[in-house]
Amino acid sequence: MFSVLEGKEKLAQRPRFGELLRAFIGGTLSIGILLLLGKISNNPFIMAPFGATCVILYAVSQSPLAQPRNVIFDHLISAFVGILFLKLLGDSMWVIALSVGTAIALMQYFRCVHPPAGANPLVILLSASSVEYSWSFLIFPVLIGSVALVLVAMLLNNIKTSQKWPHYGLAVMHSKTSLVNTNEASHLQQK
Fold it and tell me: Taking the CB of residue 143, how many other CB atoms lie within 10 A of it?
């Protein structure tokens, strides 16, 4: 019953100092740049889920969840769901719950799961009574902000490291994996 508290599990290895420094600089610089761009342009470049995106980009950058496709497309998809549901269905409790479920299903369908973006429909629908959301929200802050985060991560995650980032980019057309699997499947069918 208390096995969770006994500490029998193995904790993740403690990060090296360079990894900690990269995460500190990455999170600070990424959010600072978004805030500065917003101040200069008078357009919002930031939203709360971007803080969690920074955790993924700098603490677990080798994860599929941290790849540019996942960060950019998933923020865009889930914010679209939030605005669409708000415009069509309002902001009732069930609409909010349904919007999050829909965003998760679409993340999976489009193969771009990025957990921080799951909060986008919540941010939109829970603040709809005090914020006027238009479709331009998908550009500022969602698209431009997520692209800016990825660009900063591309710079920082490739400084003095043997593991290059990203593993894959946007993979808009076909990924190498899907082509390989298709070729393997056709090869197996021929046998």
Answer: 16
Domain presence at residue 110: yes
CA separation for the pair 158, 80 (Å, rounded)? 31
Classify the phi-psi angles of 42: left when phi > 0, otherwise alpha if psi is within -120 to 50, otherwise beta.
left
DSSP string, 3-32: HHHHT-SPPPPPPPHHHHHHHHHHHHHHHH
Name the pTM for this structure: 0.87
Taking residue 34's Cβ as centre, other Cβ atoms within 10 Å add up to 23
Encode pLDDT of 101-144 as tens digits: 999 999 999 999 999 999 999 999 999 999 999 999 999 999 99
d(CA 112, CA 151): 18
User: In angstroms, rounded to a whole number, what is the distance separating the alpha carbons of residues 166 and 71?
Assistant: 11
7 located within any domain: no
Determine, yes or no, domain membership for 152. Answer: yes
- Per the listing, tokens 């679409």 go with 106
In the chain, the number of structural domains is 1
Write the pLDDT tens digit of every residue in 42-77: 988 999 999 999 999 999 999 999 999 999 999 999
User: How many whole angstroms from its chain centre is CA 190?
Assistant: 40
End-to-end CA, the chain: 53
* Residue 5 within a domain: no
